[in-house]
Write a structure and sequence with these properties.
The structure holds two protein chains of two kinds. Chain A has one domain. Chain A is built from 14 helices and one strand; from the N terminus they run αααααααααααααβα. Chain A starts with a helix and ends with a helix. Chain B is α+β, with helices and mostly antiparallel strands. Chain B folds into three domains: 120 residues, 3-Layer(aba) Sandwich (Glutaredoxin), CATH 3.40.30; 318 residues, 3-Layer(aba) Sandwich (Rossmann fold); 109 residues, no CATH class. Helix content of chain B is 41%, strand content 21%. In chain B, the strands form seven sheets. Chain B has a seven-stranded mixed beta sheet, with helices on both faces. In chain B, strands 2, 3, 4, 5 and 6 form a five-stranded mixed beta sheet that branches. Chain B has a three-stranded antiparallel beta sheet with strand order 15-16-17. In chain B, a hairpin with a 2-residue loop joins strand 15 and strand 16. In chain B, helix 6 packs parallel to helix 14 and helix 16 packs antiparallel against helix 17. The chains are: A mainly alpha, B alpha+beta. At the A-B interface, helix 2, helix 8, helix 9, helix 11 and helix 12 of A face helix 1, strand 1, helix 3, helix 16 and helix 17 of B. Strand 1 of chain A pairs antiparallel with strand 1 of chain B, so a sheet runs across the interface.
Chain lengths: 244, 627
């Protein structure tokens, strides 16, 4: 894994060398603060908690994370640099992991920059900071799951737009799985055990479980599994491309 | 061929991966580690529960009935069922073999379903007509006890509900509680008929007590208090006849424990007894007192004094307008005595127009304040309060910095209030006891409305069931007091756990400040308006008969000047009133602006500077290239 660190650094810093990263962060912050205050009604709620923020996060991520991930492989494929990458003495795992972790770290930075919200509720009252911390841990894990899906869709096409749209669609399905309205709809067609399995595969179910303030090993393992699946599919597509 | 190989290896890779992930998650679902990050450890068993379980003296079987195989189960219910199973496992682990758990899925038309119904588990109809069972049955020896429906909204109270169910059978035999009230606290003598039979008017507080103790009703004119009672609760005693007062007195002399709720002005009384109170030409009698009995226990209480607190003011709806009303007081932890077992773990209470209790000067008994008010408290007359509009009443409250208490526990060797022996009307019975043999404790609280459902609980309808969820610790106060006086302190440690509202303290402070700052000015302006109006009236009255309809030019000018002044001052007052709200709205706007702009501007700045430097470097290298 000796190539991992330089690869990671190249990818991570690569974000900040393009104006897109700053635009992305600014829009993400504006959108999250807007949702928290205007849709979530944080100030009117008179409750020192970040629930209004965390409630909208799965839906914000739905758009923002595929936007972060879309460029990772599609760009390399379009510009042809992927051929150079593969001629270097870099294993596929190193390449996939470094790109993924760089994107994840970038999302962590964006998430971290929402800290004024945390300061705000602490200024206004006495929130349960343990619950807020859990909310951030859950958000980060969920962002990782979204990103691994986006990495996979990014490796499917040369076109960033196509990989973005694919990413949004797959993530959307994964969000829907845990959503009550959707499972009710499925109940009329499928047997109960299948619905159980499917509902359990949704992002929101696990995210909400963590953001109540309870770090449960099952939820953490779920997100790590989701990330693993995404990255494994990513590796497989790349291997297939490389071979052909 | 190569492509085919490629495809099969990829496909088998995917299959292997998926299998691995599924089995990993399956294993993970069997063993789980959890870190409870909440401040109050909402999701872990508390020490109180552990010690309670340790005290179990017989085997207990807990059956969880849950219709897991139903198709259209709401996801939150499913998630919650998993939680319930987990917490039950924790109980089992902590019980060292005393507790065993059974999980049953009562499918339609099976024996299991019949059992669920026999045990009293409520079937809830789902939208498509299926019946869902989700409840707990506790088999303790030969006794059984059920929680008919587990509401996900009560998750924070789950641990307590289970502990309570486990303990209740044992405790119910030991503590007998009597409730005496002039209100419908423990059901009405003449129940109102609803479409499905008589409507149960019993307050949630009594149902809460019933889960813990053996509760019975004592009539408000009882001539004797059953000696089997360990604790007597007297709520809102109104003009009790002498023999009843004497019975209560002797109950305490004989070592009976007493909890008294008196109230200078009970709106609940007015609301529940609307017809009885509407006697033309008479002020409704909605105050209560125990007069000489309270005095015998060294408690001073004035039925005519209503207490309010500016910094504890609570938002209420006064005729369509939301105002902060200082006579509805949200009591926070800092004002609930930490030393007392009754209030030590309580977090928040709501007092609805109460009075004060204090210790008689020079008394030798021990007076332990339970609920205190802040330095911003003041008083109003109970008689006039009823007829004053809440906004004006709030304004009239002047904080005077005095210490005031809403509730207290008094301990001492009390003497009878009937020093001359039994009053007339009491025949026979036990021998008169002029003085208690040992120390006794009486708990007095100067509000009754706080125990009324409207002020204490939220109700949700779930199918035919009405779910009740405490809004504050009001009911816990009474249950804890009975627990304490009845000698069982076991459940107190768990009871007060749960997620309690965390309001914006900063906003409340600002509101208080604003009120202080603008109140004086507002009052001055109101005074000015009143003066102007008086002068106007005087001037108009001065007109002599001869020129009743004709005012001279000077008078006319003066009147129009006054009118102008009045308009101006009124406008000023409107602005001042707006200012009261302004500070808070401004804070909201400022916070949104800071959150919206601070980091985005910093990020933009950073981005621009990076690009500026990079483009300069780029140009420099370009120049270098040209050289």
């Amino acid at each position: 894994m000796e190539n991992f660190v330089p690869l990671f650094r190249r990818e991570f810093l690569g974000y900040f060398r393009s104006p897109v990263a700053y635009v992305f962060i600014v829009i993400f912050l504006l959108a999250s603060v807007g949702c928290t205050f205007f849709l979530g009604g944080l100030f009117e709620s008179d409750q020192a908690s970040l629930d209004p923020f965390f409630n909208y996060l799965p839906w914000l991520f739905l758009v923002f994370v595929p936007a972060v991930g879309m460029r990772l492989w599609a760009e390399e494929r379009r510009s042809g640099t992927i051929e150079i990458l593969f001629t270097l003495p870099v294993t596929m795992t190193e390449a996939v992991l470094s790109k993924f972790l760089a994107g994840w770290a970038f999302l962590a930075v964006a998430l971290f920059l929402t800290f004024p919200l945390w300061l705000t509720v602490n200024y206004l009252g006495n929130p349960d900071n343990g619950v807020i911390f859990a909310g951030y841990v859950g958000s980060l894990l969920m962002a990782g799951a979204y990103l691994s899906v986006s990495c996979f869709t990014s490796s499917l096409s040369k076109n960033q737009v196509i990989s973005f749209v694919l990413g949004v669609v797959i993530c959307f399905v994964l969000v829907l799985l845990g959503w009550g309205v959707f499972t009710d709809l499925m109940a009329s067609i499928f047997p109960a055990w299948l619905i159980d399995v499917v509902a359990d595969a949704g992002f929101i179910t696990h995210f909400q479980s963590i953001s109540r303030g309870l770090l449960d090993s099952r939820d953490i393992i779920y997100f790590i599994s989701a990330i693993t699946v995404g990255l494994a599919l990513n590796t497989m597509t790349l291997n297939a491309r490389k071979a052909s | 061929m190569n492509r085919f190989k490629q495809f099969t290896s990829t496909a088998s890779g995917v299959v292997v991966l998926i299998l691995a992930i599924v089995s990993l998650n399956f294993i993970a679902s069997k063993i789980n580690f959890r870190f409870d990050l909440t401040q109050d450890k909402v999701f872990s068993l508390s020490d109180g529960t552990r010690s309670l379980i340790g005290k179990l003296d017989r085997d207990v079987t807990i059956k969880l009935f849950f219709s897991r195989s139903l198709k259209e189960l709401p996801v939150p219910v499913k998630t919650y069922a998993t939680r319930v199973e987990e917490i039950l496992q924790e109980y089992k682990a902590a019980s060292k073999g005393r507790i065993s758990i059974e999980v049953i899925d009562p499918k339609p038309d099976t024996d299991d379903e019949e059992w669920a119904q026999k045990y009293g588990i409520t079937g809830v109809r789902l939208p498509k007509g299926d019946q869902m069972f989700f409840g707990l049955v506790f088999l303790i020896g030969t006794q059984e006890m059920a929680i008919p429906y587990l509401d996900p909204r009560r998750e924070e109270f789950l641990e307590y509900d289970i502990a309570e169910a486990l303990m209740s059978k044992v405790k119910k035999d030991s503590v007998a509680v009597g409730v005496m009230s002039s209100l419908t606290v423990i059901g009405s003598p003449s129940p109102v008929m609803g479409p499905q039979g008589p409507i149960d008017e019993t307050w949630a507080v009594v149902n809460d007590l019933r889960r813990n103790f053996q509760v019975s009703k004592v009539e408000a004119d009882a001539k004797e208090i059953p000696s089997s009672l360990k604790v007597l609760i007297v709520l809102h005693p109104k003009e009790l006849p002498e023999p009843t007062l004497y019975a209560i007195d002797q109950f305490v002399m004989n070592g009976g424990k007493l909890i008294v709720g008196v109230d200078p002005m009970s709106r609940t009384d007015l609301q529940l007894n609307a017809n009885a109170q509407k006697v033309p030409g008479q002020t409704p009698k909605i105050g209560s007192d125990l007069e000489k009995l309270l005095a015998a226990w060294d408690v001073e209480y004035d039925k005519n004094v209503l207490v309010g607190d500016q910094s504890l003011a609570t938002q209420i709806n006064a005729g369509g307008q939301m105002i902060r009303y200082p006579f509805f007081m949200t009591i926070n932890e800092s004002l609930l005595s930490r030393q007392s077992v009754i209030t030590g773990k309580l977090k928040s209470m709501l007092i609805a127009e109460g009075g004060t209790v204090s210790h008689k000067a020079g008394a030798t008994s021990k007076f332990e304040p339970l609920i205190q008010l802040s330095k911003d408290s003041g008083t109003a007359s109970a008689a006039s309060a009823l007829y004053t509009n809440p906004i004006d009443l709030s304004r009239s409250l002047k904080p005077d910095g005095k210490d005031r208490y809403l509730a207290a526990a008094v301990t001492g060797r009390f003497k009878s209030a009937f020093s001359a022996g039994a009053p007339s009307g009491v025949f026979g019975g036990a021998k008169h006891k002029p003085e208690a043999d040992a120390d006794n404790t009486v708990v007095v609280i100067a509000d009754v409305d706080l125990f009324y459902d409207q002020n204490a609980v939220d109700k949700f309808r779930f199918g035919p069931q009405i779910m009740i969820r405490p809004r504050n610790d009001n009911l816990n106060f009474l249950v804890n007091a009975v627990d304490y006086l009845g000698g069982s302190e076991d459940l107190i440690a768990i009871r007060s756990k749960g997620r309690i509202a965390r309001p914006f303290t900063r906003v409340a402070e600002i509101q208080k400040e604003a009120q202080k700052r603008w109140q004086a000015e507002e009052e001055a302006l109101t005074q000015q308006i009143n003066d102007l109006q008086r002068k106007l009236n005087e001037m108009q009255a001065q007109r002599t008969d001869g020129n009743r309809f004709a005012l001279n030019a000077q008078q006319q000018a003066e009147i129009s000047k006054f009118r102008e002044d009045e308009r101006r001052v009124k406008k000023q007052r409107r602005e001042v009133r707006k200012n009261l709200r302004d500070d808070i709205e401004q804070l909201g706007r400022r916070l949104i602006a800071v959150n919206m702009l601070f980091v985005p501007i910093a990020a933009t700045g950073l981005g621009v500077s990076v690009f500026y430097r990079r483009s300069r470097r780029y140009h420099l290298t370009k120049k270098g290239d040209r050289k």
